Amino acid sequence: MDARVMVFAPSPQLTVTVEDLGGEPDLHLHAGGQGVWQARMIASFGVPVTLCAALGGETGEVLRHLITGGGVDLAAEEVVARNGGYVHDRRGNQGRESLAEVPGDPLSRHELDSLYETTLIQGLASTVTVLSGPSDARTVPAESYQRLAADLGGNGVAVLADLAGDRLSAALRGGLRFLKVSHEELIADGRATSGEPDELVRAMVALREQGARAVVVSRSAEPALALLDDDVVLEVRMPPLHPVETRGAGDSMTAAVAASLAVGKPLTEAVRLGAAAGALNVTRRGLASSRADGVRAIAERVALRAYQPGDR
Length: 312
Prior knowledge:
Blueprint: E1 5-8, E2 13-21, E3 24-32, H1 34-44, E4 49-55, H2 57-67, E5 72-78, E6 85-89, E7 97-102, H3 109-124, E8 128-132, H4 143-153, E9 158-162, H5 165-174, E10 178-182, H6 183-188, H7 197-210, E11 215-219, E12 222-227, E13 233-237, H8 249-262, H9 267-281, H10 292-299, E14 303-306
Parallel strand pairs: 1-4, 1-8, 2-6, 4-5, 8-9, 9-10, 10-11
Antiparallel strand pairs: 2-3, 6-7, 11-12, 12-13, 13-14
Helix pairs in contact: 1-8, 3-4, 4-5, 8-9, 9-10
Family: Belongs to the carbohydrate kinase PfkB family.
Keywords: ATP-binding, Kinase, Nucleotide-binding, Transferase
InterPro entries: PfkB_dom, Ribokinase-like, Tagatose/fructose_Pkinase
């Protein structure tokens, strides 16, 4: 089967950002949400990628036009449930100011069934599947992630996830080839009591026992931790880069790992490329918008070394 990635993004968002351009307001209109950003990053590596999503309402109509192109194929289910969105003002010195946040509507049972069928078919035609979370927890039930992970993984598709909370628990029950999670998410979910490395390693071992073959924990500016296909925990050291926008770094990491695995790269090489994508993302204002050639150049500076208990 030719290399292809399917990204499950049940309810993308319409994002409106107000920037400053020479003292005048400048509007930026984009399709957003975790899965959209991941799909764009995967496409930047030249790997075919299909985004599976439900689109409805006026926001859904606009999103349909914004998502397509740039190497991303769209497999969309037309639904009555409206997609959400937000308006952010970035003209000040305090980062983003939220002017409006509109959540997406929950999918009806029939809408969910149709989206699941489309996602399953597209996933079975792919070598790698990425399960991303909805922007609003009400959109799809967590058990959908367990079903997708089990149905796709059971048919030979490598299932990757970038999830937290109930959706992470459900996906673990279905089985995962690779999991990316942040240390903040582990603490919020009660899977770790602190951000101390030894505590995070304990949580990673538990995640493996619960269904994830390989686990990477991002730690903001600190080196990520990786538990891959053996029992050796690796510290992923990234080159220091001045941050402009920290949002989306984890999505970039997951996307680069997916793109690498889709073309048959070893997991260690995929993690190195993923770390580079996450590091380079913080230097740009556009989420998951780094170029592949830049990511590959940074990847040469990413070091993997064995983590020793008690390291800080």
